[in-house]
Amino acid sequence: MIEHGPGMPWAVAHATAGDLARPLPAERTTPDAAIGRILAVPLRAAVAVPAFDTAAMDGYAITGPGPWRVVGRRLAGPGEPVDPLLGGTAIEIGTGAAVPPTTEAVLPYEDSTRHGDLVSGEPRRPHIRRTGEDLRPGDLLADAGRPVTATMAAAAVQAGVEELHTHRPPAVTLFVTGDEVITSGQPGPGQVRDSFTGLVSAVTARAGGHLLRSTRLPDDPAALADALGRPGAEVVVVSGSSSAGAADHLHRVLTALDATWHVRGVACRPGHPQGLAELPGGRWVVSLPGNPYAGLVAALTLLEPLLAALAGRAAAPPVTAVVTGEARLYAAGVRIVPVTGTRIRPGARPGSLHTAAAADSLAVLSAAWRSGDPAPRLVLP
Ligand SMILES: Nc1nc2c(c(=O)[nH]1)N[C@H]1C(S)=C(S)[C@@H](COP(=O)(O)OP(=O)(O)OC[C@H]3O[C@@H](n4cnc5c(N)ncnc54)[C@H](O)[C@@H]3O)O[C@H]1N2
Ligand code: MOO
């Protein structure tokens, strides 16, 4: 059962979830498969960029004083190296083609005049991208700990990198408890439709993990114990069953499984009965209160920082920004309210998501907060 008293201060709970877990081991993947993951080792160029002396314009590769006699043509594409250019000669060249050794400049078509096989003009700039002038093998592209973006993956490919070393993304399984919860169709009398699976999936993906599956469980301690005891994902999320009711078995089951509690109740409204525990063997259990808005608060307070840490992201305190408006503050902890821009959206209740649906973030208001003061922000998924 949830401990009596207000519970762990919200900021301590949030920081604890981000500090507890070490990043999962690194894996090698293609650059594209690494997008969204976190670099486990620095990313360095494998080859020079450009890899060869390259024409930067369409025109003529020239050397020596003009006019130049055009002795050949080279367009971008594979091919044996061409012979060095002799003084007073030129070859017609395409952007991206390897320039012949000894080329002094590429004369763009628009700066040149051609009569028969003679070309003349005034080279104003070399228009040659020299081997390695952007990157040399071993140059640093990104430090360990950086998230791999699509741009970074493309830069890695350009620098000849075939594999990136990134932390394995944490896998999550969600157990949706509650005899009253249905996962499809319109609820009948006494039933509610599951609103956790989509939210947990989105928060998980944003933190760098992936939701393996969501399974509904009845309010039955044996079913819950069996589900938690089975090997599987690194992180098990349980929605509902977090509180004091006759059907709320999670705390008893975790005690029976010899779990260690790291967070057991948080001094916040809503979301008070949330928790974070560790099973023998190292799997994590995150307990989300069944009230959907309270569960969302818990997903952003405990699940997201835990997953981010497992995915290899450095823990960071939440961004703080000014909040204006009115809220009923909670004397023994924080009140967590939906906010659009700086403005509080009034009327959020633990069981309902519609107020948060119209907001862009949640603001964490201390008992001392006054309109216009900054407060930590949790961006809504
Ligand atoms: N005597 C006490 N009662 C309650 C306390 C308390 O401290 N003492 N805490 C209240 C608070 S705060 C919350 S939050 C809830 C937490 O409840 P549980 O986590 O045990 O969840 P349930 O009782 O199963 O459900 C609560 C509520 O949420 C609805 N629900 C559950 N799962 C889903 C789902 N997947 N999708 C949509 N809605 C869901 C469920 O039908 C209930 O209405 O306990 C208070 N009680
Ligand atoms: O804190 Mo419950 O988490 O109010 O709805």
UniProtKB/TrEMBL annotation:
<keyword id="KW-0501">Molybdenum cofactor biosynthesis</keyword>
<keyword id="KW-0808">Transferase</keyword>
<feature type="domain" description="MoaB/Mog">
    <location>
        <begin position="173"/>
        <end position="309"/>
    </location>
</feature>
<dbReference type="InterPro" id="IPR038987">
    <property type="entry name" value="MoeA-like"/>
</dbReference>
<dbReference type="Pfam" id="PF03453">
    <property type="entry name" value="MoeA_N"/>
</dbReference>
<keyword id="KW-0479">Metal-binding</keyword>
<keyword id="KW-0500">Molybdenum</keyword>
<dbReference type="Pfam" id="PF00994">
    <property type="entry name" value="MoCF_biosynth"/>
</dbReference>
<comment type="function">
    <text>Catalyzes the insertion of molybdate into adenylated molybdopterin with the concomitant release of AMP.</text>
</comment>
<keyword id="KW-0460">Magnesium</keyword>
<protein>
    <recommendedName>
        <fullName>Molybdopterin molybdenumtransferase</fullName>
        <ecNumber>2.10.1.1</ecNumber>
    </recommendedName>
</protein>
<dbReference type="InterPro" id="IPR001453">
    <property type="entry name" value="MoaB/Mog_dom"/>
</dbReference>
<dbReference type="InterPro" id="IPR036135">
    <property type="entry name" value="MoeA_linker/N_sf"/>
</dbReference>
<dbReference type="InterPro" id="IPR005110">
    <property type="entry name" value="MoeA_linker/N"/>
</dbReference>
<feature type="compositionally biased region" description="Basic and acidic residues">
    <location>
        <begin position="113"/>
        <end position="137"/>
    </location>
</feature>
<dbReference type="InterPro" id="IPR036425">
    <property type="entry name" value="MoaB/Mog-like_dom_sf"/>
</dbReference>
<comment type="pathway">
    <text>Cofactor biosynthesis; molybdopterin biosynthesis.</text>
</comment>
<feature type="region of interest" description="Disordered">
    <location>
        <begin position="113"/>
        <end position="140"/>
    </location>
</feature>
<comment type="similarity">
    <text>Belongs to the MoeA family.</text>
</comment>
